[in-house]
């Protein structure tokens, strides 16, 4: 079992890191919810890159954008949806295949697999 230790810092809860602690407080950096969304986007990007590599599709990855909504129906306002946009370049003849391979991301991303099934995950690719 792996362990991550968080500590109480002067500005809020911090994740210690050798080059400086990450403060998990929206006013000081990113909130825990934003970190969760970023983790989903990063994991999805790594999985997509792995799928493309294993499929022998040459690509150039540019960036990933993640947007999210929270449910106002529950007091804690949990995530209700996450939309991820992967920006990348591939040869024109591979674009349709890449669109189909995008469906595999949820199946192989452990972060997405760890989320509640109530959270809708939408993914799209923006070709450059």
Structure notes:
It is a single chain. By secondary structure, the protein is α+β, with helices and mostly antiparallel strands. It folds into two domains: 1-30, no CATH class; 31-127, K homology (KH) domain (GMP Synthetase, Chain A, domain 3), CATH 3.30.300.20. It has four helices and six strands; from the N terminus they run βββαββαααβ. A three-stranded antiparallel β-sheet has the order 1-2-3, with no helix packed on it. Strands 4-5-6 form a three-stranded mixed β-sheet, covered by helices on one side. A hairpin with an 8-residue loop joins strand 4 (59-70) and strand 5. It is globular and about 55 Å long. The mean pLDDT is 95. This is OsmC/Ohr family protein. It comes from Vagococcus lutrae LBD1. InterPro entries: KH_dom-like_a/b, OsmC/Ohr_fam, OsmC/Ohrsf.
Tell me the Rg in angstroms. 17 Å
The number of helical segments is 4
Share of helix, binned: 25-40%
Output mean pLDDT: 95
Question: N-to-C terminal Cα separation, in Å?
Answer: 40 Å
Low-confidence stretches: none
Please give the number of β-strands.
6
SSE topology string: EEEHEEHHHE
General form: globular
- The helix-and-strand class reads alpha+beta
CATH superfamily of the largest domain: K homology (KH) domain
How many domains?
2
Proper CATH architecture of the largest domain: 2-Layer Sandwich
Strand order of the largest sheet: 1-2-3
Hey, roughly how much beta strand do the residues contain? 25-35%
Q: What's the level 1 CATH class of the largest domain?
A: Alpha Beta
InterPro entries: KH_dom-like_a/b (IPR015946), OsmC/Ohr_fam (IPR003718), OsmC/Ohrsf (IPR036102)
Protein name: OsmC/Ohr family protein
Organism: Vagococcus lutrae LBD1
Pfam families: OsmC
């Amino acid at each position: 079992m792996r362990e991550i230790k968080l500590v109480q810092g002067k500005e809020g809860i911090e994740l210690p890191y050798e080059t400086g602690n990450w403060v998990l407080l929206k006013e000081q950096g990113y909130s825990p919810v934003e970190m969760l969304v970023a983790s989903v986007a990063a994991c999805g990007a790594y999985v997509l890159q792995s799928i493309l590599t294993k499929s022998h599709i040459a690509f150039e990855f540019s960036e990933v954008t993640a947007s999210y909504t929270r449910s106002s129906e529950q007091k804690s306002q949990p995530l209700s949806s996450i939309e991820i946009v992967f920006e990348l370049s591939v040869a024109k003849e591979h674009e349709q295949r890449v669109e189909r391979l995008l469906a595999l991301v949820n199946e192989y991303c452990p972060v997405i697999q760890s989320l509640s099934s109530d959270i809708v995950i939408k993914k799209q690719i923006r070709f450059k």
